[in-house]
Amino acid sequence: MPSGFWALTHCIFRGPPGMHDPARGGLTLMAFDFGERRIGVAIGNTLTGGARPLTVIDAQRRDLRFQALADLITEWAPQRLVVGLPRYPDGNPHPFARRCERFAHQLQGRFGLPVELTDERWTSALAPGRDPIDAEAAAILLQGVLDTLSAHAPVHSNQ
């Protein structure tokens, strides 16, 4: 079980009752496939249950990356952020995982939004061979999160 910061975000991310309430418009989530040079970005919503590729941020300079992220977060106004956490096929963390964790902490600190790290095994392999593959991988990652949330959503009855 995660502790500290990640325990809080894992708990919050499961969502409060009614997070799929159409009157509230659902939650908008933004996901990132973080890389040393490029960051794939996808957007999704708990109401529609769908995710789609948005863009790729292609900048090595940190200030340019975070300005582009700030612009996207302002434009799309997500309530939650998701960052892919690389793991080996056997589940062990990849050495790049620490950089992804640091990126997640930076997002939370800069934008004050809950951030969840989620296993990104196979997302790049499952992404169609078209560009931008990083954004496609982010969309696959986010779709998995949305599918999990949908599977755990309470069922409401009109009776």
Descriptive report:
By secondary structure, the chain is α/β, with parallel strands linked by helices. It has one domain: YqgF/RNase H-like domain (Nucleotidyltransferase, domain 5, 2-Layer Sandwich). Strands 3-2-1-4-5 form a 5-stranded mixed sheet, with helices on both faces. A hairpin with a 4-residue loop joins strand 2 and strand 3. The protein starts with a helix and ends in an 8-residue tail after the last helix.
Core attributes:
Nucleotidyltransferase, domain 5, disordered C terminus, 5-stranded mixed β-sheet, globular, disordered N terminus, 5 strands, 159 residues, alpha/beta
Distinct helical segment count = 5
Number of strands: 5
Under the CATH scheme, the architecture is 2-Layer Sandwich
Could you report the average pLDDT, rounded to the nearest whole number? 80
Give, in spatial order, the strands making up the sheet with the most strands. 3-2-1-4-5
Uncertain spans, ≥5 residues at pLDDT below 50?
Answer: 1-20, 155-159
What is the element string, with H for helices and E for strands? HEEEHEHEHH
Sheet with the most strands, sense and barrel status: 5 strands, mixed
End-to-end Cα distance, whole Å, is 37 Å
Q: In oligomeric terms, what are we looking at? A: single chain
**How much helical structure, as a percent, in the residues?**
40-55%
General shape: globular
CATH T-level fold name: Nucleotidyltransferase, domain 5
- Class, according to the CATH hierarchy? Alpha Beta
Strand content bin: 15-25%
Q: Which structural class do the helices and strands define?
A: alpha/beta
Query: In total, how many domains does the architecture comprise?
Result: 1
What is the name of the CATH superfamily?
YqgF/RNase H-like domain
- Determine Rg (CA atoms, Å): 15 Å
